[in-house]
Amino acid sequence: MNDSSGTETGEGIRGAGAGAGADSGPVARPWRLPGWRDRTVAVLDTQLASAGLRRTGPAEVVKRWTLSVVLRCATSGGVVFHKRSHPSLAHEGRVLAALGARDPVRVPAVVAQGAPYDGWCTREVRLSPGTDFPQDARGRALAVLSGLQRDWLGRPAELAALGCWSRTPRALADLVPTAARHDLFGPASPLPGALSAREWKRFSEACARLPELCAELAAAPPGVTLVHGDLHPGNWGIARDTGRIVLLDWAEASVGHPFLDIAAALRSCSDAGAHARALDRYFTHWAPLMSREECRAVWRLAEPVAAFNQLVTYTRLLDEAEPHERADWAPRLLWWARRVPRTVRRARHR
Fold first, then answer.
1. Which residues make Cβ contacts (< 8 Å) with residue 210, sequence separation at least 6?
2. Quick one: 192 exposed, middle or buried, by C-beta within 10 A (0-12, 13-18, 19+)?
3. CA of 71: how far to CAs of 126, 135, 185, 237, 321, in Å?
4. What does the DSSP 8-state code read for residue 30?
5. How many Å apart are CA 334 and CA 60, to the nearest integer?
6. pLDDT digits (tens, 9 = 90+) for 163-199
7. 0.85 exceeded by the pTM?
8. Measured distance CA(217)–CA(42) in Å, rounded
């Protein structure tokens, strides 16, 4: 997912699934109801006032879709984004505030938050997006992420208190029986491009092996920590004034093995050399906790679990999407469904 503001809010711990048990329908998406704009601007103004700011221009709608609404406006303290999200993603604001308190240059600064689900405000960061840079730059973004992950290593209770999803290896293992859904992935699925009968068989066989791989990953270093969840090149950029990497859109922040983030970060990296160099740079930043050789061995084990983690997220997001949007989600969902058996086969021969 990607919102141009790179911001969002918080809620209680959600369990292993993305938004498990979250509300749905218009209550969860008040920006779909008549009069939503005036109400949202009123919330924005209240939050700005709590921070000693006031709006000095109109609130522009940057994005409005099934999962969130984002407004942008000039204020007495500079340009600010306001974001309000579906309850399943409402922990982002708290995560951003906690990250910014420890490392204020790596995430957009939260200037105000409201009641749960009312959204939050962040200062604008002028960025050149990661999509504008060569594929080798992904290693730089992963290296920055590794610093945040090391900082939160061994602190799952604090992350859970922020509302991060639980995506630990054991939590993901528990999801395997319910995530392998024939109605979505199987030949009878209504989604365009669904798995063939042969692909479904391979997918089912791979899922049968996943709990064993999850158990092995649970015992592997370095332990559980903060996981971004969706670090594709659209979700990071380079600040134009400082040249620093800034990590955006923490809507899918979770507690899990840090290597889960490699899957999304390198998914579209078509250059094999750039892919290998990005991995190497990320692994280098785990020293002295792990050698590069240890990192490579753990990644071979973690790769199928990371693919399954992405599948879990997109399955839940598709379930929460409005009917007319589901076909747009299908390619990403089915891409990860096809990725799971391929990575399980590689792990089996490691």
1. 172, 173, 176, 304, 305, 308, 340, 344
2. exposed
3. 16, 31, 36, 20, 21
4. G
5. 34
6. 999 999 999 999 999 888 888 888 888 888 999 999 9
7. yes
8. 47
